[in-house]
Amino acid sequence: MAIRDTDKKPTPEELQESGEYKKIQDLDHDDMVPFLLKNLKNRNPINGLFKHGTMILIGLILFVWIGRWNTSLFFVGLGAGLFFTFTGGLILHELLHLLVYKLLGAKKTRLKLLWEQGAVAAVADQFVVSEKEFYWLAFTPFAVLTTAGLIALFTTTGWIFYGVSFFLVVHATACIGDFSLAGYMYENRSREIYTFDDVENDKSYFYVKVDEME
User: Fold this and answer.
1) Which residues does residue 124 pair with via DSSP β-bridges, in sequence order?
2) What share of the chain is helix, strand, coil (3-state, %, to 5)?
3) Distance, first Cα to last Cα, the chain
4) Cβ neighbours for 53, distance < 8 A, ≥ 6 positions apart
5) What is the CA radius of gyration of the chain?
6) β-strand 193-198 against 129-130: which pairing, if any?
7) Which of 25, 35, 164, 199 is the most buried if burial means most Cβ atoms within 10 Å?
């Protein structure tokens, strides 16, 4: 399946100036987390997948722990898992976002630290992303790292097993932003939605095609 949207996409200038599109969200990056938490409350399949999928994952890990419990190894694994999640795991997650951006054709990509919100964001300056492309962008890190983690969960032992367990849980929970934004795109899918980042002004914009009846 192709990652790029084969239909011709509008440029940022066309979204803003042609009159064929309407801005529905002007998202300040400093307000990213409140926006994400608000949108996660909406009932749609994507938000439901995140909420129920995370609970299923936690349940699976607890089930696997049965018969393999070792208190000392548990705490070693806890420390190792948390350390890896917020170092190597975080880097891998964001690099996968940047890789998808590159595959989509973005030229100016970077990682942005949102210190006050305790988050990191992959952005592509002035690069328009369609709804279909955004799903690839949002879900690739979760799919790749969760699959790798589940394979490791069933093939490792000792403290590494517990470390993998904590990585899976923390990483899945940390994907809240990706799922929330994808859910927002899904909520507005009926009107041909696009988004792009404006790195200089610390904003992301969401535009929809203007209905002829509006």
Assistant:
1) 109
2) 60, 15, 20
3) 34
4) 172
5) 19
6) antiparallel
7) 164
Domain ranges in the chain are 29-122+137-192
Query: In terms of Cα–Cα distance, which of 9, 1, 2 is closest to 130?
Result: 9
pLDDT > 70 fraction of the chain, expressed in percent and rounded: 97
CA distance 166 to 155: 15
Res. 213 pLDDT band, cuts 50 70 90:
very low
Q: CA angle, 168 as apex, 165 and 173 as ends, to 5°?
A: 130
**What is the DSSP track for 86-121?**
IIIIHHHHHHHHHHHHHHHT-SSEEEEEEGGGTEEE
Of the CA atoms within 13 Å of residue 14, those in its CB half-sphere come to: 12
What is the spatial distance between Cα 151 and Cα 146, in angstroms, rounded to a whole number? 9
Q: How many CB atoms lie within 10 A of CB 19?
A: 8
On the question of pLDDT at 70 being above 50, the answer is: yes
184, 123 in Cβ contact below 8 A? no
